[in-house]
Amino acid sequence: MVDVAIHRLHDRSQEPFPMIDVYSWPTPNGHKIHIMLEECGLAYKVHPINIGAGDQFGEDFLKISPNNKIPAIVDPDGPDGKPISLFESGAILLYLAGKTGKFLPEDVRGKYDALQWLMFQMGGVGPMLGQAHHFRMYAPQQIEYAINRYTNEAKRLYGVIDKQLSEHAWLAGSEYSVADIATFPWLRSWQNQGVELDDYPHLKRWFLEIAERPAVQRGVAVLAQERKPLSGDKEREILFGATQYQRR
Questions:
Q1: Where would I find the GST N-terminal domain in this sequence (predicted)?
Q2: pLDDT in tens, 219-246
Q3: How far apart are CA 25 and CA 61, in angstroms?
Q4: Can you identify the CATH homologous superfamily of domain 5-102+219-245?
Q5: What confidence score (pLDDT) does residue 141 get?
Q6: pLDDT value at residue 234
Q7: Minimal CA–CA distance to 68: which of 224, 221, 238?
Q8: Burial class (CB within 10 angstroms; exposed 0-12, middle 13-18, buried 19+) of 32
Q9: Which stretch of DSSP H or E encloses residue 127?
Q10: How are strands ordered across the β-sheet holding 20-24?
């Protein structure tokens, strides 16, 4: 396991919960959890998992995240007072919302409004924009069909969000929630997705408002200095080649 970086981005000396261990990297899925922790005011330690160097395949990390993906957390103060480990960013967001009572509406209708938009991010926004990034920026061959398919899907998803935000302040209605926290980091790379933010004025309003939140600014700064552009074939192979598909 890599060395631990301790993050106390502002004073949390009165924090009632023990410090949470976060195994992460500065990607959209990682930033979801960094932002949520900051918004909730929780103390945490970040363990960088350099996915370009293959840290995600380490034995210790696989015990926490068997799908070899970041982020993952270990909370020493789980629901029963015992440590709990979690992988999958959506599950972690819901866990932290439950732990703190924040960013998931208490009323039943509001909760399901937030959950459906969180699932929209998990099942649509993340996977499809991830494919747009891959084929537009990282694929070894420029495949016109794939580029067009995923760029057009990115634009369609932006349109769905824009329509929702033309009628509501936030994705799930009148409250800022886990749905907004989950979706925002994926839209920070809108230029790489072939999207013009000005084409989606309601989404742009929402995006800029979230970007101004101090907790969000702290969250996206976590590990940001660690991430570098892909530097060679070895990193590409680790991320996209046979290494990714080995049985472990």
A1: 17-104
A2: 999 999 987 777 677 777 877 877 878 8
A3: 13
A4: Glutaredoxin (3.40.30.10)
A5: 92
A6: 76
A7: 238
A8: buried
A9: helix 126-133
A10: 5-7, 44-48, 20-24, 72-75, 84-87
Would you state the structure tokens that stand for residue 8, as one six-digit string? 């106390």
Q: Which residue has the tokens 């396991």?
A: 1
Site of tokens 């023990």: 18
Beta bridge partners of 23: 47, 72
Whether omega for the bond prior to residue 71 falls within 30 degrees of 0, making it cis, is yes
- What average pLDDT does the structure give for the chain? 91
Residue that is written with structure tokens 């495949």 in the block:
143
Exposed e or buried b per residue across 186-205, where buried means at least 16 C-beta atoms within 10 angstroms of its C-beta = bbeebeebebeeeebebbbe
Q: Which amino acid is at 73?
A: I
- Distance, in Å, from the CA atom of 200 to the CA atom of 210, rounded to the nearest integer, reads 15
Helix (H, G, I), strand (E, B) or coil at 93: helix
Residue written as token pair 């925002």? 184
**What is the rounded distance in angstroms from the CA atom of residue 180 to the CA atom of residue 158?**
13
CA angle 118, 124, 125 (to 5 degrees): 75
Distance CA 45, CA 127 (A): 27
Specify burial of residue 143 (Cβ count, 10 A radius: 0-12, 13-18, 19+). exposed
Low-confidence ranges of the chain (pLDDT < 50): 1-14
